[in-house]
Amino acid sequence: MLLARRLGSLTAAVEAKAPAGPPPPELAAAEAVDLGRELALAEGAPRPVGPDLWRSFVQVGAREARRLASAPDLLADAAREPRLDEQSAAFLAAALRNLGVFQRAGEERTLAGLIADCKILPQYHKVLRRWMEALQVAGLLHRNGDAWVAREPLPPSALDARITAEQRSYYGDNLPAVLTGAVHPLEFYLRDGSSTSVESSYRELPIFRYCNGIAAAILEVQVRALPAGARLRMLEIGAGTGGTTASLLPLLPPERTSYYFTDVSKFFTDLGRQKFQEFPFLRFRDLDIERDPMAQGYPAARFDWVVAAHVLHATRRIAETLEHVRRLLAPGGVLLLLEETRFQLKYNFSMGFLPGFDHFEDYDLRPLHPLLSSVQWREALLAAGFAAVASFTEPGSAAEIMGVDAMLARAPGGHA
Length: 416
Known about the structure:
This protein is of the alpha/beta class. The protein has helices spanning 2-15, 25-41, 51-69, 72-99, 111-117, 125-137, 157-160, 165-180, 185-189, 196-204, 206-224, 243-248, 266-275, 318-328, 374-383, 398-402; strands at 108-110, 141-144, 147-150, 232-237, 257-263, 282-286, 303-309, 329-340, 388-391, 404-410. The protein has two domains: 2-11 and 29-71 and 198-410, Rossmann fold; 80-192. A seven-stranded mixed β-sheet has the order 6-5-4-7-8-10-9, with helices on both faces. Strands 1-3-2 form a three-stranded antiparallel β-sheet. The termini are far apart. The relative contact order is 0.16.
């Protein structure tokens, strides 16, 4: 029962992230006046980020990225990635065996046929397509038009030997159950029914310590550069469980900061209120960044910093999302963007199932999964009108192998 209750609340929380309708125009206008007045009272806003301060951000971010990328635990995680990729392919093959498909050489299946024959929920068609692509890359399937063909019965014995009997049973049984709707993905993802491990991972896992460490180092530069009497106006998009928030708040001067902790779900803003009571400069508000922020009561061009940690990829259209973000920023303001930049095979049976992960609709940009590479993010940010972009994960580093990056983008108007 405890598991059911916990999963019930978690499921409701995630499903609550579905976009809501816009507020009535009169309510949005009133909220805009209230928030605009509140921000206007934060007199002494920092000057726009000019070339010198931007160079300092970039230098400090790059230095911290190099330091953190050499952390022993991050290097160890990166070294395990090839092994995890092999195991991931074995998990998928074991699940397909339990679904009764690809059990003879030459067996051919289309996505539509798999969904119909195996009674897979149609909502998982993107998941299933990624499975087929992954097994094709692994050399277990080959493509024939709209179909995939088994080279040999799945899983081959050599691949099957790379996972334990316990893993074979757990993933072989539960992955098909998730696909068919017998098991909710959160019940599979949170094996003990608790969100504690997920919340802590956004602070404690090496890849998140890497991202949050870079973010904190750059924010320290901003705080030291605050002119006398200036107040820093910050907004965090999709703050969720507050993993990145917790890394930033201790750096901020309480009497000189206005920090807006926002999320599309009231569950997470309420959670933030509970977790961060000791920071009186925090404000908690709803924000759906897929919709025009101005229509939700946010004034344009009033925030000096916008923070978006592991969230913007989970929107329908990146170009539209980035336009909304830019409109929130004051002239010369900065976007701190933390993102996954490589789709790892293990995502096929973890975050790839979670509601919102496959929310994307801009298939010309993201045909298979919602993640963008660092190069794609740079191009998208510049196309959205940002004046400068910096990316801190170095090619070939452990952080790149793990598929994460910390990026910074400056809004126009920062040359004063």
